[in-house]
């Protein structure tokens, strides 16, 4: 009982604070009286919350402005550079970095090569920490204004406790990675699944703005999905919702590395597609496959057409289960070979259950290769306001 | 902008009201001062909200009680019979009715035979309205205390607008069914998908109490699913999340009535199972199939084992996508032939992706045949407090 009440109060308090901050961001500059009028909260509550926001440095008082006959009010504004966050994207071959200011703008970006499966968690943490230290020094960032580092990691991530539970891309199991970084830099660090931060970025600043229930499907070296509902990342019971790659596409199908039969990833991830291609003709990479299809080689066109069919079926399954109003297709496959998108859309006309056909739109990523960096940085920004 | 702010305020106001009502229900009787202490809301706010609740008749003042040295406080309590709701479950052959009191208890139950596909929406509405009128008269219910009727309907339901968009069980399309009832009885009527109200019932009063993210799988004449997260029914963009029956199990599989190939329902719904059985031996119904299996007839055991495998795969797909902490198996198949449950659990040990194997428990329904009536009645109860 106690716990529920405490939780309820916190939710309300936080909700009011977020609401006021959003109002200030959107209507800057604005007076306390106007906020009171808009929110219908008591002047005391508004005063207290604004006080907190000012104390945190998120909001500042500006010059007096006339708001009525003869009266002058102190106006409130945000300082776009009040705080900074870092967004980090740990990929298979590259680690990307971004510095984001309070307003949501990326001030600086950087990338460092690495080899995921050869890097120990300790070495990766050292590389990330050093790079961040160099950026802070080069860009002369005020360290006291850096409120945190967000990191998008491929795999099953315990977001609350900052642990990489399992990442096949990195070959890590049960690594308290957030703590590794925090111990080195003494900056709050949060980690989350890469596709969950990616969809947050698209929702807040990318192609899913205005969508209320958005599903994201990642198609490339891996296969995965995520969902965001009214701005809340859908996490499931242990932050593992959306593990699309190991849903079963065909009970009698291909063996998967996981030991099960017919997992979706054995049909549509890059290695599965190339495996299929190499049965017919030596194919080094996806570029060669798509070039062969362009060249009107039948076998290549068939493989791409079959891949589109399976992706269409995947979209049907996602739409039946999540009933989103938009589906974002992301990942190397659709970003590097966008000619596949109309083929997928065509398949959807056949394989999506009829009552759902007009209930969603298919989008592609707007932020593309930046999306994980942006989402990871925003994760901290949101989190910071939440926790303060 | 305006809309967002209005929404935010409403959410907070409603949240506070629900919180206070829950506190009174759980700690009855309780004083305003104690509520103020627990909620940390201002005495003015608490007074106003309690006033609203009293005015609605949801809460009443009781005798003075000593709470400290020489002081006496007016205590607040709920009247278990302050309000009533009706829950209605429109099934294939039977319409079930229940009268629920404010405390959540079912006062009275009743069932009426009908034949779904032969009943027009108008005739069904007339039958439901007449039955409710008879119950009101016989049970001498105070009509002014009946706050609403909740109806669980199989199909795609526009819950907000009270429209049955599509129901294959009933053969209805775009029927404003809530309005039909409301016009006859002049009592607020809400309708919702049957599995969505079912999971609400199990969450509030059945086997999923204490689970935070629960998935429900219906197995019987139809196949479907629903999800509830921290008490909120997961609806998707157009209240159609969970349409499991038309997810694709096998891209090269059985033709489905919907025109697609390999839909899950063509493998595990009752007619699909019986169709398979009749290939081998004339089988009138499920009872005969399970009797043959009991009798150690191989063909029957094989069919049941294959069904369990497909249900196991379905559980894997649900768990991968939703990551729930509990999965409730419902419907005639598991309720009438519970010997299949251990077979399904055994299959899950094989076909659920390894990282998820220990993340959820498999439950069966506690409320069984009452669950839709209970959930539909609770839907109105929740809704009423929401709207007041």
Summarize the model shown.
The structure is a homodimer of 388-residue chains. Chain A is of the alpha/beta class. Chain A has helices at residues 2-27, 32-39, 43-55, 121-138, 177-185, 194-205, 265-268, 270-280, 286-294, 298-322, 332-336, 340-351, 371-387, and strands spanning 30-31, 59-66, 72-78, 84-90, 94-101, 106-113, 146-153, 156-158, 163-167, 172-175, 189-193, 213-219, 223-229, 232-233, 326-330, 361-364.
Structural class of chain A: alpha/beta
Shape estimate of chain A: globular
What is the class of the largest domain in chain A in the CATH system? Alpha Beta
Give me the oligomer status: homodimer
The CATH homologous superfamily of the largest domain in chain A: ATPase, nucleotide binding domain
What does the main sheet of chain A amount to?
5 strands, mixed
Terminal CA distance of chain A reads 25 Å
The CATH architecture designation of the largest domain in chain A is 2-Layer Sandwich
Number of strands of chain A: 16
Q: What are the secondary-structure elements of chain A, in order, as H or E? A: HEHHEEEEEHEEEEHEHEEEHHHHEHHEH
Mean pLDDT of chain A: 90
Question: Biggest interface between protein chains, with counts per chain?
Answer: A-B, 65 and 65 residues
Question: How many domain regions of chain A?
Answer: 3
* Biggest sheet: strand arrangement of chain A: 6-5-4-7-11
| Helix content estimate of chain A | 40-55%
Question: Any overview of this molecule?
Answer:
- The structure is a homodimer of 388-residue chains.
- With 388 residues, chain A is of the alpha/beta class.
- Chain A folds into three domains: 2-78, Winged helix-like DNA-binding domain superfamily/Winged helix DNA-binding domain (Arc Repressor Mutant, subunit A); 84-199 and 371-387, ATPase, nucleotide binding domain (Nucleotidyltransferase, domain 5, 2-Layer Sandwich), CATH 3.30.420.40; 209-365, 2-Layer Sandwich (Nucleotidyltransferase, domain 5), CATH 3.30.420.40.
- In chain A, 44% of the residues lie in helices and 23% in strands.
- Chain A has helices at residues 2-27, 32-39, 43-55, 121-138, 177-185, 194-205, 265-268, 270-280, 286-294, 298-322, 332-336, 340-351, 371-387; strands at 30-31, 59-66, 72-78, 84-90, 94-101, 106-113, 146-153, 156-158, 163-167, 172-175, 189-193, 213-219, 223-229, 232-233, 326-330, 361-364.
- In chain A, the strands form four sheets. In chain A, strands 6-5-4-7-11 form a five-stranded mixed beta sheet, sandwiched between helices. Chain A has a five-stranded mixed beta sheet with strand order 14-13-12-15-16, with helices on both faces.
- Chain A is globular and about 80 Å long.
- Chain A starts with a helix and ends with a helix.
- Chains A and B meet through helix 1 and helix 10 of A and helix 1 and helix 10 of B.
- Chains A, B: Belongs to the ROK (NagC/XylR) family.
- Chains A, B: InterPro entries: ATPase_NBD, ROK, WH-like_DNA-bd_sf, WH_DNA-bd_sf.
- Chains A, B: Keywords: Carbohydrate metabolism, Kinase, Transferase, Xylose metabolism.
- Chains A, B: Pfam families: HTH_24 (PF13412), ROK (PF00480).
């Amino acid at each position: 009982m106690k716990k529920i009440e405490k939780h309820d109060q916190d939710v309300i308090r936080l909700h009011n604070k977020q609401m006021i901050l959003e109002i200030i961001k959107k209507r800057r500059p604005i007076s306390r009286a106007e906020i009171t009028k808009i929110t219908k909260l008591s002047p005391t509550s508004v005063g207290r919350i604004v006080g907190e926001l000012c104390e945190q440095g998120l909001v500042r008082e500006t010059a007096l402005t006339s708001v009525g006959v003869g009266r002058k009010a102190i106006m409130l504004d945000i300082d776009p550079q009040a705080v900074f966050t870092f967004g980090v994207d740990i990929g298979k071959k590259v680690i990307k970095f971004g510095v984001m200011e309070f307003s949501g703008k990326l001030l600086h970006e950087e990338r460092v090569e690495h080899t995921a499966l050869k890097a120990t968690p300790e070495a990766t943490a050292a590389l990330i920490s050093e790079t961040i230290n160099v950026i802070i020094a080069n860009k002369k960032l005020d360290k006291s204004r850096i409120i945190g580092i967000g990191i998008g990691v491929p795999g099953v991530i315990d977001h609350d406790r900052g642990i990489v539970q399992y990442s096949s891309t990195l070959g890590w199991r049960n690594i308290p990675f957030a703590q590794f970084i925090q111990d080195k830099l003494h900056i709050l660090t949060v980690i989350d699944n890469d596709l969950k931060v990616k969809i947050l970025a698209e929702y807040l600043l990318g192609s899913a703005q205005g969508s209320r229930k958005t599903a994201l499907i990642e198609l490339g070296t891996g296969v995965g999905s995520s969902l965001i509902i009214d701005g809340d990342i859908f996490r499931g019971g242990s932050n593992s919702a959306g593990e699309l790659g190991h849903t079963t596409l065909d009970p009698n199908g291909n063996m998967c590395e996981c030991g099960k039969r017919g997992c979706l990833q054995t049909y549509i991830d890059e290695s599965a597609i190339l495996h299929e291609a190499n049965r017919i003709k030596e194919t080094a990479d996806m570029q060669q496959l798509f070039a062969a299809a362009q060249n009107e080689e039948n076998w290549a066109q068939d493989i791409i057409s079959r891949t589109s069919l399976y992706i269409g079926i995947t979209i049907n399954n996602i739409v039946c289960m999540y009933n989103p109003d938009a589906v974002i297709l992301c990942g190397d496959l659709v970003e590097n070979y966008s000619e596949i998108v109309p083929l997928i859309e065509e398949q959807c006309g056949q394989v999506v259950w009829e009552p759902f056909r007009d209930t969603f739109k298919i989008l592609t990523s707007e932020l593309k290769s930046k999306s994980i960096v942006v989402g990871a940085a925003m994760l901290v920004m949101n989190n910071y306001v939440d926790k303060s």
